[in-house]
Amino acid sequence: MVSFGTLTIVRAISVRLLFTCHGLVSIWRLYYVTHDTRFWYLGLAMAFLLIETSVTLVKNRGKEWKWFCPSVCIYLMSTVPSIWFLELHEMEKRISTTNDSRGHAQNDSLEDLSAELGNVLGVRFEIRIPILLSPDQWIRTLEQILLLILILGRWILPKGKLTHDQLSQLLLVYIGTAADIVEFFEAFKEEEVRYNKMLCIIILGLWSLSLIQFTLVLTAAKARRDQSGLVTGNEGGRRQKNGCCAADVYGILISILLQDLPFLVLRLLLILKYKVLSYTNMFFTSKNTLVIILLLYRLVVVYIERKNNKPNALDHREYPQDDFGTPREVIPRSHSVSHNIRQPPYGGHLPDDKQYLMKTLPRSNNHNDNKPKMYKLRQEKYQWGKDYHFEQVDGRV
């Protein structure tokens, strides 16, 4: 029977092989259309992927990192430059053949992808991908396969420190992000963009910027998980513990800064300066505006919920707790006094010259864990009045 450790290693290696195959095909296509052997140097990024694979297998036993995915970053380093050069090469061809009637025929000609490996003993060896596509279709196919591999790769990769719930949320966010990026490339169909070198470079730059989201793991899962603004009680507690910049806040800011806001600025530029008033551009401009408004609304809701749920700490004196859950001051036994947990001891204030301990109430069948632990008394304000509770700290006595 295959162990979980072996299965984790197999999954980690399989995804990296998938990354390598697509990266090499992208470089191969670039060499096929340019016949420039220097572009094969882009494949050196695969050496870093080999190093990253070795470190992940040895240090993490195949499991992925929690916040950042280095294998995806290296994969993008080898594939994105290839697509950049392909796009710029096709743009130069379009510009050079603007006044040539044969230019459209050449651009629409169907091509496959093949490479001759030479002859051995009269036998001809050749690698061929029997798919007939136009140059523009080849580029769009490589771009869309890139997004598909990023989603499938994250699904197949070991989840590492992610929970199953976080992984499912992350995959859904990836699908939505990939759909927005595919829609962004619709701008290349506009005549004002196809023959404008500056606009093509700007679009490719914003596309590359948006792909950085796929290298971020936990923050991306929080980006658009809940645009309705609803916050559960557990999330509020975690947010109080982590401070103002929790994972969902980082995720929302990253989504706005890396994708939605740059996409909106470019589309507004096309409308206001270049008079691109097509239905597609107007629709996606409205969509990006609405998404940014929803994300900002989500930020406001997170801030309000955190402010309302933030406990108002009065003091950090430590109190003991007996076997019935009642706090008790650590003083000589003959002078021991008990206080109800919902009543402020000493008339609503705590003396500065007292030190307190807590003894935990057994919550399981293990009655041996009865060592005193350190707790802090905190006060919370509600509509019906004040309430007190004890929060355990890490220290033990």
TrEMBL record:
Transmembrane segments: 12-33, 39-58, 65-86, 138-157, 169-188, 194-218, 249-272, 284-304
Keyword hit for Transmembrane helix: yes
Signal sequence coordinates: none
Keywords, alphabetical: Membrane, Transmembrane, Transmembrane helix
InterPro entries in the record: Transmembrane_26
Pfam families for this protein: Tmem26
Name of the protein in its database record: Transmembrane protein 26
